Every structure is written in structure tokens, then in C-alpha cells.
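ok so i was messing around last nite and threw this chain in just to see what happens. nothing serious, just curious
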Amino acid sequence: MLAPILCVVGARPNYMKVAPIIRAISAVTQDIDSILLHTGQHYDESMNDQLFRGLRLPEPDFNLNVGSGTHAAQTADVMRKFEPILDKVEPSCVLVVGDVNSTLACALVAAKKLVKVVHVEAGLRSFDRSMPEEINRVLTDQISDVLYTTERSAHKNLEREGIDPKRVRFVGNVMIDSLLANLPHAIPTTQTLTRHELPASLAEEKEGYAVVTLHRPSNVDDRNTLAGLLKSLSHISQTHPLFWPMHPRTRSNIERFGLLPLLRSKYVAILPPLGYLEMLGLMSKARLVLTDSGGIQEETTALGVPCLTLRENTERPITVEEGSNTLVGREHQTIIRAVQEILETGGKAGRVPEYWDGRAADRIATHLVAWISENSGLGVA
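result:
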């Protein structure tokens, strides 16, 4: 047996990326165990049933229970609690995904202790250093030994930053592995609405429904910005009922800023955070999706559902260039025009990008197992 792979997750979307990788590694070899560590950076009570049991995800072997906090406090807490686990496990490498604080924190600890770092979803760039995630992405890539990319444009970003191309491998989008595997099990929208005591008939009214997600500080932490977006969403609800699984941070700010009256319409259905299968069912049948989430830009592209991203930039340009995503920013008239275009033309369907085929985890596992075997006992990639 070779030393195990220590896989790190810090937020719910990380599970959707790590789970198929763990399954793929076990299919390739029985000589390398995968150990799962959850930092507890994000947590909600629905995770256990919806993710672990419902989606065949393994329970974490370790949970750091870090919780929320400032970026500095959270990153430091993850590092402090992760180090003794790393010493105990003595892994062949630490596998991190995405761009949350836990990704950078665990990569830093591993790199300083001369443990190899593997970064899944490397090379994505928004070129906006005001985004904490951009800092996490850039720094994690600099200290990683193996970098797996979701789109070929990421390679140019990494080359520009001085990353040795020998460390980089294009494998496709492992998030889409989870989506395609679970789409047949997605929970119907009408069932989700009924469960949350909303009229199921809303799903069939008007011109089809829209799904909304908002959580980024740049959109929800400033009263004027948030108020402007709520006015736009209220206007859209005149043609599309809005189903909005609302992030706790967003809900808190709407209440704190006194903006709830802007959402008082029977065509704006506010839902609690949903499980993965509920959210997948909701998005797959939507007329359009309005979001500031990076992952949802990818998922709507895979589903062929028009997506309007309420941001000025995206670290996933392939969703705009080839997929169903359109950047619309936060300006009211721009958003409304984009919605009207979807009404008139059916919206942007795009095409599924290269290697978003449900086999990204297989490509990762095949390469990673061979790489670990070749480099076992060595200090460099």
C-alpha cells in the first residue's frame, strides 16, 4: 500500500467535485486509500442527508469544525487545525479543489511541510483581485505540484504566471461528472415547491420560471447594490415566477437593510437553501437562471439553460464563449434587456465544452495514481 491521498473539502460545491474523484481512484487501484477531510468552513443541516446519503458521498474521516469568520481568522483556523491531521495521516499528497479559503489554507500547510499538493480546477482567473477567491486561486496554483484544469484557456493563465507546463494537465470539469450522474435522480420542481408549502402551479404560470441565487459580498453586502438587484428581480417576476433558494447571508442583509417589501409578490417564491438534487431539478427545467455563482454558470452550460450572471467578470470564460452564460452586470436596463431577449429568442443554449463529458474524474484518477506511483518517496513532482 502506498501512502493515502488526503482530499480536502471546505464548502458544499467542493463535495460535488471530490466525490467522483474518490470513487474513480478506488476503481483504478486498491493500493491507495482516499481520506476525506471537511474543514467545516461552510455547513448546513441539510448536508448529511442530501449529500452524504442521497448522493453516495462518503462521510468525512476528519471534520475540523472551523465555522465562519473573517477571511484571516478562518484561514488561520483551518491551518492551525489541519497541521496535526496532516502529521497523523502522512499522505502521499493533499488534493484540494476550487478556490475557497480552505483550499489555500490546506495547500499552504502541505507545501510548507513538503507534502505534494494537487489542485483540481486550476488556472481559472477573473483578473479581479478584489475577489478573495481570486487570491486563493492564484496562490494555490503557485504552490501546487499537479494542476488539473477544466478548460484550455486556463493553461495560458498558468503559463503567464510562470507555472511549468509539465505540472499542468487538462482533464475537463469534474463538477459535470456529478451533474450528469445525478440528473436522472433530480427532484421535480413541483415536488420541491410542495415540500416547502408553495403552490406547485407557480412552476407552470406565465412564460416559465426563473431561478435566482445571490451570495457574493459585492452583490449583497452593500444596501444600494442589493436594492437595485431586488428591483430588477421584482420586475422580472412580472413575466417569470422567481424561485429563489436564498443564502443565509443574503436573507440576513435583506432583513437588515429593510428591503423585504421589494420582494412582496406571489411570483417571488423565497426558498430555504436546497439540497443538490432539489436544486438540480429546479435548474434543469428553468427558462433562465440569474446568479453570481461560478459553479452555477458551469451547471447551466452543461444543462443548456440560459444563464445571466450578475457580475462584471467571470473566472469561467468558456461558459460565455461556448456555453449558455451571459455576463450582464448589475445595471437594471441591461438585465431587463437580456431577459427580454430570452423571451423573444429562447435564449442562448450554447454547447457543452470539451471534456465536460462526465469522465473528468476518471482522467484525474488515472493520471494521479500513476503520478503518485512514479513519485513515491520523492520530494518534487
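not much to say yet. The first strand starts at residue 5 and ends at 9.
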